[in-house]
From TrEMBL:
Tagged with keyword Methyltransferase: no
One matching Pfam family: Aminotran_5
SUPFAM superfamilies associated with the record: PLP-dependent transferases (SSF53383)
UniProtKB keywords: Transferase
Molecular function GO terms recorded: transferase activity
Protein name from the UniProt record: Pyridoxal phosphate-dependent transferase
Residue ranges occupied by any Aminotransferase class V domain in the UniProt entry: 22-387
Organism: Lophiotrema nucula
Length: 397
């Protein structure tokens, strides 16, 4: 396979050629590969039939859908029977929460450093099954979940722990492998929200050693669909939600609900191929290196000013963090700052709590406008980030 060329990668995205908008809300949603867009149109115009049929076009559609599932599973190092594709990570977690079996009085540990997607489903599950919820977080300035700060919360009653791989506000990478070990030593199941990690680094659920893992392809250069992994072993803790006459062997059988979006599922092999296919290592090494340069430019500027607080790690080391960078400026309202950037430039950044409301309110202690967030991916350029720094210099007091 030829080396992954960062500069050329940009050319694969039609939106990036269209106008001069600079996309820096990628943690909200990334742009979509041109080949994916084309394949969705082709599927709909040539093979859009109900799956499961034996006639000629039906067979082609069946195969394309199956190939989508196989590619998504192989991409994260899972078996196809261990994944389900659904409308969103929120929906996939809600489905999982409806299906998991625990006993009254069991304990679950939830983190406050999360997008609400990885909280609400488990609070709902706890209410329904009469489980006790324990809260896990890490104070400022560390703001990092570790196996060490989890340990005091674990008990013989702990049956489930959930946390994010990377916070969509803080950008720091949690060591989920180390956390998985202590969760398993305690005899509990471990669920990880990989939504903010997956656009930046290789996902290998077996190497992470997790029981459940999820991310959304609309932030990984594809359209709106999400994948949830549940190991074969972990599936034993699930009650299938399928119709009584349907099979229940795979995760998709158990909580898939009438199949996933056909035209998007069949496009997944194209995204996987873009990210290196069966050999994603070199692609993600190139992405990590480039992202390290991007985040250094912004972090160097932000940390040079005494009136700016970066929430999360200020290290530009790609092993420490991904380029999702949130900050507040003393005496400046985050909303007003973003509006000034909108007026002064073509840079698309955002303000708010980004659904990580518990983190922003309770851990960071911020007001309703919360943070300004700049979220970069590999198709952003150093020139763009240098330009953003100049805009910030202009609009900041
Ligand atoms: C970290 C994180 N988790 C979960 C979600 C929700 O994903 P979805 O929209 O697929 O439900 C988001 C979306 O912004 C997110 O950033």
């Amino acid at each position: 396979m030829p080396e992954f060329n960062i500069a050329k990668a940009k050319e694969r995205f039609p939106a990036l050629k269209k106008d001069d908008q600079v996309y820096l809300d990628n943690a909200g949603g990334s742009q979509v590969l041109g080949d994916v867009i084309d394949s969705v149109a082709q599927y709909l115009s040539g093979t859009n039939v109900q799956l499961g049929a034996s006639y000629r076009v039906g067979q082609i559609s069946n195969q394309k859908y199956e190939d989508g599932y196989k590619a998504a599973a192989a991409y994260i190092n899972a078996d196809p029977s261990e994944i389900v594709l659904g409308t969103s990570t929120t929906q996939n977690f809600m489905n999982l929460a409806s299906s998991l079996k625990f006993n009254e009085g069991d304990e679950i540990i939830l983190s406050k450093m999360e997008h609400e997607t990885n909280v609400k489903p488990w609070v709902y599950m706890a209410d329904k099954l009469k489980l006790t919820v324990k809260w896990w977080y890490s104070e400022k300035p560390e703001l990092k979940l570790t196996s060490e700060n989890l340990k005091p919360l674990l008990s013989a009653k702990t049956k489930f722990v959930a946390c994010t791989h990377v916070s969509n506000i803080l950008g720091s990478i949690h060591d989920v492998k180390a956390i998985a070990k202590v969760v398993h030593d305690a005899g509990a199941l471990f669920c990880v929200d990989g939504v903010s990690f997956a656009p930046h680094r290789q996902v290998d659920v077996k190497a992470f050693g997790v029981d459940f893992y999820a991310f959304s392809w609309y932030k990984v250069y594809g359209p709106h669909i999400a994948v949830l992994y549940a190991s074969t072993e972990a599936q034993k803790h699930m009650k299938p939600l399928a119709h009584y006459f349907n099979p229940t062997g795979t995760l998709a059988d158990k909580i898939g609900f009438a199949a996933s979006n056909y035209e998007i599922t069949q496009s997944i092999p194209i995204i996987v191929d873009y990210l290196g296919g069966s050999n994603p290592g070199p692609v993600f090494a190139a992405i990590a290196e480039h992202e390290g340069k991007l985040q250094k430019i912004l972090l160097d500027f932000l940390t040079s000013r005494k009136d700016i607080t970066v929430h999360g790690s200020t290290s530009s080391d790609s092993k420490e963090r991904v380029p999702t960078i949130s900050f507040t400026v003393e005496g400046v309202n985050s909303k007003e700052l973003v509006e000034k950037v909108d007026k002064a430039s073509n840079y698309g950044i955002r303000w708010g709590h980004f659904y990580s409301k518990r983190l922003c309110d309770e851990v960071l202690g911020l007001g309703p406008e919360a943070v300004c967030r700049v979220s970069m991916v590999h198709y952003n350029t150093e020139k763009e980030i240098e330009g953003l720094v100049e805009v910030l210099k202009k609009v900041l007091p």
